[in-house]
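Bench notes, afternoon.
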Amino acid sequence: METKGNGLALLPLIIFLALFVGSGIITGDFYKMPILVAIIIASGAALMMNRKETFTAKVENFAKGAGHPDLMIMVFIFILAGAFSEVAKGMGAVESTVNLALSFLPQSFLIVGLFIIGAFISLAMGTSMGTIAALAPIGVGISAEADISIALAMAAVIGGAMFGDNLSFISDTTIAAVRTQQTEMRDKFKVNFFIVLPAAIITCAVLIVITLGNQSPVSPGEFSFIKMLPYIAVLVTALLGMNVIIVLTGGILLSGVIGMSDGSYTLTDFLQKITEGIMGMAELVILSLLIGGMVELIKRNGGIHFILEAMTKRISSKRGAEYAIAGLVSTTNLATANNTISIIAAGPLAKDMADKYEIDKRKSASLLDIFSCSIQGLIPYGAQMLTAAQFAKISPADILPFSYYPFLIAVMGIAAIIIGYPKFKKAK
């Protein structure tokens, strides 16, 4: 495997972004270039690079990247999320949940409510993907009933999901940041929380202001607590910290039992709904596998190492080192489209910089987590944005203008660097 940095190795990523994002900007229509076509072309470019390896070896390495354990777990979540969403929707769970929300929440608080609920769920589950799987269908229903922008609703769900992804004690990103910086979970949480808290407060205020008077009057329909049980069960088990795969599997089974009990489903209907939900996620699964394979080839060809080298060349101060850590993990995340992998890749170098320039471990761990989650919540080819867009049947680019929280946590992270927050007491 290459260890020397090679900027040319990033060409497939540049091709992908030029095709998908660039064509959307030029034409004003992000549906012009199908995202699967863009990633297939970019993956083909990655396979054509590095003449030192045979084509067979490159295909095998591509397959290794596509089959990375983290990616496979994400694919399982996609599959279960699709099945749960379709089964719950088919037996009336979404309709009942939406009607309940419309009955009790003031309409100006519907979207901010999605953000806050998402924040609590993701803190409990430790996964943004599981949170989006649970809340996105409800967000779609609320936006339709209240005539609120569906892109805004999805952005609120993603923002809440990224809140917990960044802070939860059982989040992969938190664990990776803490381990690479050799600090304690609770200490990193305290530092991280007070940096991003203003971003969460500002996001809530913005969501309330922009939805005031913008909703159509809605007469809530009837709702059934029985039909809402699958969502309640998912939320409760998530708050108890259960594994997201168990949570979603339980939600599927409970939805099926309730649907067959009240006549919404026969057993055949239930099984067909599961299949429909899984097939609805097919594009997302294929896209994730192709991105994983392409990123592996970029990494093997020296693209990630090039980023690491380029971001650490000109550092002359503690503040400069903190900026470098933030830039390092952000750029790596742009290349890998995975915040956990970006922290794992950038973490050891960030630790060296933190030691050299006397940056507190809690601060370096927080910077890694904050900026990786910020970028992950903003990139239109990231799993979070793609999943929400899949549920809403819109382009990920439509969600981006409303992605207030991921943007604001980066702003707060930069502010923390500028003002030197927090002030740590030197160890005796």
